[in-house]
Amino acid sequence: MIYSIQTILLAISMGQEVEPTSSSHLASHERVAPSQDIIRQPTSPEEPTPFCNYTNYNETKAQDLAHVLMTNYSRNALPEPNPVNVTVEITIQDISDISAITGTFVIDFWISAIWLDKRLKFSHLDPCRKNLSLDHDMEPKLWSPNVCIVNSKATKVHDSPKPNILLMIFPNGTTWLNYRIRSEAPCTMNLERFPLDRIECHLILESYSYNAAEVTLQWLAWSPVSAVREDFNLPDFKLTNINYGSVTEVYTAGIWHRLSVSITFERLYGFYILQMYLPTYISVFISWIAFWMDTRALPARITLSVSSLMALTFQFGNIVKSLPRASYVKAIDIWMFSCVGFIFFSLVELAIVAYNDKITDQRNRHSKRESQDTMMPREENVSFSNGCNGDHRCTRHARGAVLMDNVTRSRMSLQDGRNSPVARFTRRKKPRNEFGARVDRAASIGFPVLFAIFNLVYWTYYLSTPSMPSQAL
After folding, report:
1. Looking at residue 10, what is its pLDDT?
2. How far apart are CA 178 and CA 204, in angstroms?
3. Looking at the record, which segments are called Disordered (predicted)?
């Protein structure tokens, strides 16, 4: 990209026409007319066109030429009394990190500022030189528009090993200043659709030192914003669109020209499908196994439901740790709370069945106790003193004989009662717990059907409805 711009600027310095071309990396454009002063600087009729004689050409050293140009040069004075037209171009080199916690992204890019400074014109001094490339040490000595990223949280110029600053001057005085920068800039996030959301990251460029009365900023017409590649291999996001524009901002100190770049990323939700959605599916399905178990296997059924609920809560906690605190409901919140609701209502179903079993057992124990009391014979009061005349041994013998006779008759009565038609009819008609089985059968059908309907509505809404636009600049 740098070499293409250099070729264009060489053509500009030679007075050739350049046809603007569109950038293939951009989805939408706002065309801004390029500066006519930069595109072509015609030679005045009084000034003869410099001619390069290669036969007697003796190349002037760049240091000597720069020394001559800096004579009587002041970096504090504007190149011309009218507002200086500064053309800006950005080439994105890499996007290395997007943080949802801090709401920022890290971007490496080249930024070029191009303007015309007639005081640096050297075509009359060295007609054969096509451009004058200077070291980064020369940059502080020249006037520059001081184009900066006003919304960045941290910005630095790369050192590898020297500062990556390119300063190039063309014969007609066109100056090209290029930096390779790493910047941390803010992103606008709307997490209502997380993890099926999109984010927009913004770069805002202004001339920090000069207002619109002194400097006007505009995008380079044929390549305002471009990228070296389309895929930056981000783990969670995919670059989908780049927009750029220009606005005017009013400050207390005056009016400033502002250039803006909006980079749109779409979140890749494959990670969340594997790490969040599938485990929650499994937790909900495990809680349904209790519907096919015996209603009296209460410990096993409770263990299944409670374990599923704890696993779901643990998964949700891990996801929340990687997100910023938001006061609105997100798509993941709806999913997790719905799954928790399905598991909770399975516990409610378990409680209903267990309570019914408890009431049934109490009724059965009460009926059994009443039947046993009815079948037991009453003991008759027998006088053991008659016929014994006070003989203690006779009395004890008579009492034992009576007791054995009562026990024998009781056993015979119980046996006859069990074998009686009434007892057999009672055993056949003993009520069994059919209510709990019916509830489990209904739950085993109703819960999967309701969960399938919820999935259909959830995925249809979030996959078909486009993301809400982020907040405008």
Report:
1. 47
2. 17
3. 363-382
